[in-house]
Write a sequence for this structure.
C-alpha cells in the first residue's frame, strides 16, 4: 500500500506516513479526512494551513442538507504544497489563533498637581 498516494477526491493532496499512522491511531477514516478538506474552514497559522470543522460548519452544512456532524472537531494540518502532515481531534480552536507579538506600549501617565 502506497501511503503517500494522492487523496482520491481532492486532487493535489498527499498524505505523509506520519499522518497515515496518526489517522489509524486516532480512528479517523480517509473519508473523514476528505470531508474536512472539502467542507472545513481553513486557518493559516504558524506556517501551516489547518482545516477544521467546528459547530458553525456543522450547522451551516446541516441547513444545506449535508450531515458532517461526525467530523466535528477533526483538524487536518497541511503544508502550502498540499501535503497532509497530521490529523487529530480537538474541539478547542483557541490554540489556532495566530500568535502576534504586541509591541510594548508606553503608558503616559498624567501628573496631577494639587494647588
Amino acid at each position: 500500500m502506497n501511503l503517500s498516494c494522492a487523496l482520491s477526491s481532492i486532487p493535489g493532496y498527499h498524505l505523509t506516513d506520519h499522518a497515515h499512522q496518526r489517522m489509524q491511531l486516532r480512528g479517523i477514516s480517509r473519508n473523514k479526512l476528505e470531508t474536512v478538506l472539502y467542507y472545513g474552514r481553513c486557518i493559516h497559522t504558524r506556517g501551516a494551513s489547518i482545516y477544521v470543522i467546528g459547530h458553525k460548519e456543522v450547522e451551516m452544512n446541516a441547513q444545506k442538507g449535508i450531515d458532517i456532524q461526525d467530523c466535528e472537531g477533526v483538524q487536518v494540518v497541511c503544508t502550502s504544497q498540499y501535503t497532509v502532515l497530521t490529523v487529530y481531534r480537538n474541539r478547542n480552536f483557541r490554540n489556532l489563533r495566530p500568535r502576534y507579538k504586541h509591541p510594548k506600549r508606553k503608558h503616559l501617565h498624567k501628573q496631577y498637581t494639587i494647588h
